[in-house]
Amino acid sequence: MENNADITKETPLKEALNLASPCRCGSCNNGCKYGSGIMVGKDAENIASFLKITKSELEKEYIEEVEQFGKKFQRPKLIRKGKPYGKCAFFDEEKGCKIHEVKPLQCRTSIACKDYGEKLSLWFMHNYLIDEKDEKSKKEYEIYKKSGGKIL
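Above: the chain's sequence. Below: its structure in token form.
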């Protein structure tokens, strides 16, 4: 995809991943200090395999549940230190992401150092977080838009 302005909900996963080249720069790692990415598809299985633990062990030790747009998702736990936000359990200040090779899809498509990074984040939201067939999800998406949330 030559023109990054062409990122739409219909952009294929392969193209989105092509645009989201693996990055470990300070801009891309900044989000890891304040949150973690939603896991979808085989993310949990891939991470468990990478860590050489069972999916059950992964869920018990490293995963928490979060709700967005009326749906429940899993994500890496946050190390909050008494705050509502915190760094991802897999983030190391010196080394960066300890599971970089298999990090969640949302993390892979969240790049801050490219001018189209925000569009990739919106692409993920539209394709994996919002359920257009679910009334609660649609309602929360409408609230998101009315409160100034960006859309593709």
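Residues 18-146 form one domain.
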